[in-house]
Amino acid sequence: MVAGPDIIIREPDSPEVLLAIEVNASVDTNASASPLKAYMVRQQCPAGIFVTAEEALFLRNRYTSYEVDSVQPIASCRTTGLLGIRAEGISEAMLLEVVENWLENLGASSARSFPSAAREAIERYVVPAVIEGVVQATGRRLRRAG
Fold first, then answer.
1. What digits encode the pLDDT tens for the residues 120-136?
2. Tell me, what's the pLDDT at 120?
3. Which of 25, 37, 130, 136 has the fewest CB atoms within 10 Å around its CB?
4. 37 vs 27, 43, 82, 121, 142, CA distance in Å?
């Protein structure tokens, strides 16, 4: 069974996925986004983000076929500029937590500053999904108790 993304944003009271986010602290975005793209096609998910320690790649499902090539990159930016942290050398668990916190705080913040290279993708796909949907970790993440 193929694992799904680390975080999804779904419609409240519905299985519909609005945004899928995969976090991998140690890989190249272009080489490793294929599983996320396949998930987006299977779930008919309109948008996704593949986040590494160095780069965040924003994806859009164009619904032109049932193949992964229907999911295309629409923007990318440095992870440090997106999340406001120095991500080099960060553990995957910590990067995942930072990404989830960033998503959860997007809807609450009225004064937003996004990297110019990804601003349109964030404002058009990410912010509406966060405002309309429910942010959900999908299970890979472990938190310490206490």
1. 999 999 999 999 999 88
2. 94
3. 136
4. 16, 10, 21, 16, 24
- Exposure b/e, 37-70, CB count within 10 A at least 16 = b: bebbbebebbbbbbbbbebbbbbbbeeeeeebee
One-letter amino acid of 55: E
User: Which tokens hold the place of 35?
Assistant: 């599983």
Q: Where are the beta strands (DSSP E) in 4-61?
A: 7-10, 17-23, 47-51, 55-61
**pTM of the predicted model, to two decimals?**
0.89
Copy the structure tokens of residue 111.
Answer: 């004064």
Amino acid at 22: E
Domains of the chain, residue spans: 7-137
Q: Which of 3, 47, 16 is nearest to 134 (CA)?
A: 16
In the numeric block, the tokens 């440095």 are attached to 78
Q: State both tokens at 131.
A: 């405002």
Residue 51's Cα: distance from chain center in Å? 7
